[in-house]
Amino acid sequence: MTTWTMPPEWEPHKATWMGFPTGAYDTAGVSDDDV
């Protein structure tokens, strides 16, 4: 089994993924269907 670790923030990378609870932002107009 391979262990995956987060790369340091300063290393070049293709994309940045951010997860957040959409239910915490009722007025944001974002739903799980939008992402």
Account of the protein in words:
It is a single chain. By secondary structure, the protein is mostly loops. 0% of the residues lie in helices and 0% in strands. It has no helices and no strands. It is elongated, with a radius of gyration of 15 Å. The model has no long low-confidence stretch (mean pLDDT 72).
Question: How would you sum up this structure in a few lines?
Answer:
With 35 residues, this protein is low in regular secondary structure.
Overall pLDDT level: 72
Percent helix? under 10%
Task: Tell me the span between the first and last alpha carbons.
Answer: 30 Å
Number of helical segments with 4 or more residues: 0
- The stretches of 5 or more residues where confidence is low (pLDDT under 50) are none
Strand content is under 5%
Structural class: little secondary structure
Radius of gyration from CA coordinates: 15 Å
The gross shape turns out to be elongated
Number of strands: 0
Largest sheet: none
